[in-house]
Structures are given as C-alpha cells and as structure tokens.
From TrEMBL:
Pfam family, any one: Transposase_21
Organism placement in taxonomy: Eukaryota, Viridiplantae, Streptophyta, Embryophyta, Tracheophyta
Boundaries of every Transposase-associated domain copy: 3-76
Protein name: Transposase-associated domain-containing protein
Organism: Prunus dulcis
Length: 517
C-alpha cells in the first residue's frame, strides 16, 4: 500500500485519516492482544508506549514521523536475505534525484526558462526577460550542470551547496562551524573539486535564487534611515550625528554607526505562486473553505467579510494576499547580556488553510532590528510601509504556476500580532499610566493602589440588571450605574491622530503620550 499520506501536511484530509486507520489496523494485526504500542507521532517519536486509541489521536494531533515509512517497530518484517536489505513494502516511493530537485527549483524561480508565460488577457505575448535576471539564470544553470569534481555524477556544484546549506539551517550550525566542515569536505574530495571554501562563497553561488536582504544604514539616535533621498548623506539632517564611526584614516571602508536589515516582501509573495501546490493553497480561503458559520479560519470572521464588502475589487481576485504582521523582542545571547534585545518583524499570509498559515515555513522575516527600537520603531518600519503601500496601490506582476499566466498581485495588512508592551511601540498608544487602556480611552476608570496603577470599572460591561452592579462592599465601595464605554470608529481615531503634532522620534527626545487627548 502507498504511504504517501505520511507526508501530507493536511492532517484533516480524508487520505490522511484513512492512512491512520490503515496503520492502526496494521498494528492490531501484527500485535494481537496488545493494549499498548509504540506511538510514532512526532512528539513521542516511537519512544513512548500508548494505547492504540491514543496513538490514533496523537497521529491526528501531532502527525506521524515523516521518515517512518517502514513500520518495523510495529511488526513489519524486513528481508535481511536480500543483498540490498530492502524492506517488504509495496509501492515504495522512488528516490528523487537531488539534481532534478535543484533544477525544479531553478525552473520555479525562472519560469520563463521552461514555460511560455502570457500576459493575463493576452495570448502568445512573452514576458520580457530582464538581462540581469537572465545572467543570474545562466550562472545557476552552469553550476547545476558542473560536476562537483571530475567523474562525480551524483552531485553538481549547486546541488551540493543546496544540500549543505539545508543541513546548516536544519541543525542550526553557526557560520564558523559550517566553514570548518566545508573545509574538511573540500580536503576530502579530489584536489580539482569545485566546492566553495567557506560560507561566504557558498552564499554568492545561491545569490541568484533570490530572497536576499538589504542593509540600510540608520542614524545613531534613530532619527531616520539613510534611505531613498537620504541614501547619499553622511550626516543625519535632524541631529547632525555622523553616519559612520570614527576610524583610522588608513582604513579604506567606512563602518556605519547602525545597520538595519530589510528583506523585501514582493519577491517572497511572488515565490508563493511559483509552486503549483502553494499557488493552489493561496486560493483555499475562497475556493475550498466551507462557509457554514463555524469559526475555523480568519476568513470566517466578521472583520474579513467586512473588508471584502468595503473593497470588492480587492476581494474579487482570491490570489490577492491578506497579511498579518508580528513583532516582539528577544535576547539571542541568553543571560550573557541582560540589556540587549533583537526585534524581528514577521509577515505571514492568511490566504493559506489553517494548517499552513501559521507554520514557520510560510512566515517571512521582513525587518531585523538589532536593538530595542522603543518608540522609534516607526523609523525602522519605513521601508516595509513603503512597500506595503505600493503593493496595495499598484501591486506587482506575478507568475501563477498553477494557471501558467501572469496577474497583478496586491496585498493588504489585516492584523498585527504582539503583546501589550509591544502594542505601545507599534500603535503609538501609551500602555503605562492612568490612561493606558486602549478600549476605554479617555473614559477609563483607574486609581493608585498598593504601589501600582489599577484599572477598575469592569462591571460596566455587565447587563443593566445584573446583581453585581448593585454590590458595593464586594468591589470598590460604589454601585455601578454607568454604561459601557462607547466604541470609537476608525475615522474618529484617525481624526485624533491628524490633530497631533509629533515630536522627532529619537533617543534624546522624549516622545509624548500620543493619544491622550
């Protein structure tokens, strides 16, 4: 029987559930009378024993170990007499040639090389090919066809680099560790091998596959980015701070005071449509979602539906992307430096089905800030905001692998995900003091108690005839006669913001409480 279902990421699919039933039946047949068996889910990893019923539940919840295609720990026999030690399994999946896999990746990145792409609404009109892109394609093709060393048929130069870089990321190897092993492998191979000597040279080979990042210099005081019209300046026009550090006059290269990494969003969104599987899943929210008033996905929520009613032109094409943004700070050095924090900003598409949209494989880091930006996170978000505005207004021309045609991809940010302290940085609303509640706003009930600011008035949300409204001694000594605070519309909040006079965002200038009006 085929065991392709083990690789299926959709654990609610009929084929996956049928595969679990086949496995349970197989385990019962080969372990008669057993009440407990090894659990092959990803969490138990065949090391814990569970009841057969719990094993089935674990496989749905956690998924089966992807490499466990030979069920030898559950009674499957292996033919040791065979010279190849091949297990007795029917319909074993063929081993895919890694060189063919890498060639498939290149064809996905450069679809013009293998597919006649037509403009949407136009027939037989080839997409113009950028000369720089074609040069990158030729370099990658050369490395794909070049043997790792003379006579090597298993690995090309590009295939070897892709395999090694995949292992580096999967097992979290540092650059120094990767350089060491790359040097060892290079010495093990014949002297005329073409393996790169270190991580830096390996990255140069993979540069043509795209999804790189840009280094953008920033002012030391977070006043601005040396970006667009300010890219050529050497000093900050706001605080007159130098862009570069003071170094020896003999040094040929200048060292910037502060650097921010920005990963462009458009190539990542385009890449989602370069694979047939992901391109189809990006339309799941419109074509395959069951609309039965049950909340399973953000598309079932009222906010999503209201957005579609407000912007019907955007909602007409299910390939347009609805994004979420998330950010938080963490200390990558553990306890070595208690004052340092790094702030990545991630984007994730809500178009995917629920079992994919929040997976790390489909999240992309768009901005990497190497220190706590505080209230000046607005400055670091400038390139991302500019790109999101362009994606909303103009879109980007994208090739859809599932249809073989070009279309204009647009994107919109639906929600941001962050904790309450980060909420102050992202939204500008102060989360400290007596007016910190973003729901009650100026109608907040707060007081000083036991050395802290406490927020009261929760009984305002109860029904008008609720008994707790009349109780005073059990709460703050007062009965509650007030209605719940009114909800502010987006237009009203925007009008408040337009009346504010923002101070420069920088370290040496304290930022006022923005929305305490």
């Amino acid at each position: 029987m085929s065991r392709r279902w083990i690789q299926n990421p959709n654990r609610c699919a009929d084929k996956y559930l049928d595969g679990i039933e086949d496995f349970i039946e197989f385990a019962r047949r080969h372990n008669p009378g057993a009440t407990r068996i090894r659990c092959p889910c990803r969490r138990c990893n065949n090391t814990l024993w569970e009841t057969i019923e719990n094993v089935g539940f674990h496989l749905v919840k956690n998924g089966m170990i992807e490499t466990y295609s030979i069920w030898n720990l559950h009674g499957e026999q292996v033919d040791h007499a065979s010279s190849s030690n091949a297990p007795r399994v029917d319909n074993v999946e063929p081993i895919v040639d890694p060189n063919d896999q890498v060639m498939g990746i290149i064809h996905d990145v450069f679809p013009f090389a293998s597919t006649n792409i037509n403009q949407e609404g136009e027939d037989d009109v080839p997409t113009p090919i950028d000369s720089a892109e074609f040069e990158q394609y030729e370099k990658l093709l050369k490395n794909t066809n070049q043997e790792l060393y003379p006579g090597c048929e298993s690995f090309s130069v590009l295939t070897a680099i892709v395999e090694l870089m995949h292992g580096k990321i999967k097992y979290r190897m540092s650059n120094l560790c990767f350089d060491y092993f790359l040097g060892v492998f290079k010495r093990m191979l014949p002297t005329d091998n073409c393996l790169p000597k270190d991580h830096k040279h390996a990255q140069k080979v993979l540069h043509g596959l795209g999804l790189g990042y840009e280094k953008i210099h920033a002012c030391k005081n977070n006043c601005m980015l040396f970006y667009k019209e300010h890219e050529t300046l050497d000093t900050c026009p706001i605080c007159n701070e130098s862009r570069f550090k003071m170094t020896s006059q003999n040094r040929t290269t200048k060292i910037p005071q502060k650097v921010m990494r920005y990963l462009p969003l458009k190539p990542w969104l385009q890449r989602l449509y370069m694979s047939t599987h992901t391109a189809t899943d990006m339309r799941w929210h419109k074509e395959k979602r069951v609309d039965d008033d049950v909340m399973r996905h953000p598309a079932d929520g009222e906010a999503w539906k209201e957005f579609d009613r407000t912007f019907p032109e955007f909602a007409a094409d299910p390939r347009n992307v609805k994004l979420g943004l998330a950010t938080d700070g963490f200390n990558p050095y553990g306890v070595l430096n208690q004052h340092h924090s790094t702030w990545p900003i991630f984007a994730f598409p809500y178009n995917f089905p629920p079992w994919k949209c929040m997976k790390k494989e489909y999240m992309m880091m768009t901005v990497l800030i190497t220190e706590n930006p505080g209230m000046s996170i607005d400055v670091s978000l400038t390139p991302l905001v500019d790109e999101l505005k362009d994606l909303w207004t103009n879109g980007v021309h994208t090739y859809d692998k599932s249809t073989g045609r070009m279309f204009t991809l647009r994107a919109a940010v639906m929600w941001t995900v962050n904790d309450f302290p980060a909420y102050a940085m992202v939204s500008g609303w102060s989360t400290k003091g007596y007016m910190a509640c973003p729901v009650c706003k100026e109608d907040v009930t707060s007081s000083w108690h036991a050395g802290k600011v406490c927020y009261l008035g929760h009984r305002r949300w109860l029904p008008w005839d609720h008994e707790w409204r009349e109780k005073d001694k059990e709460f703050d000594g007062n009965t509650e006669r007030r209605l719940r605070p009114r909800e502010w519309s987006g237009d009203e909040i925007l009008e408040q913001l337009n009346r504010l006079d923002f101070a420069p965002f920088r370290k040496t200038v304290s930022r006022p409480d923005l929305l305490h009006i």
